[in-house]
Amino acid sequence: MTLIVDDAxxxxxxFGVVIGAYREETDQFxxxxxxxxxxxELFCDKKYLKEASRVVQxxxxxxxxxxxxxxxxxxxxxxxxxxx
Length: 84
Fold this sequence. Notes:
Blueprint: E1 2-8, E2 17-23, E3 28-34, H1 47-62, E4 70-73
Parallel strand pairs: 1-4
Antiparallel strand pairs: 1-2, 2-3
């Protein structure tokens, strides 16, 4: 099985960024939102990267990753800390 993690909305920061995790084999999907405040004054400190990592960990835990299950993460820089 494989978990797919991707973001939506990082190019349109009116309402924040959605991070979603999907397991195609079981059609399971969960998501969370990085609040738009992480892209305002906190942006220069890149706190949105730490928040994205926290969200990814939360979603993976929620989907109860299986032993040896692969995780595919979008190549976007928003996941730089999450994949480190």
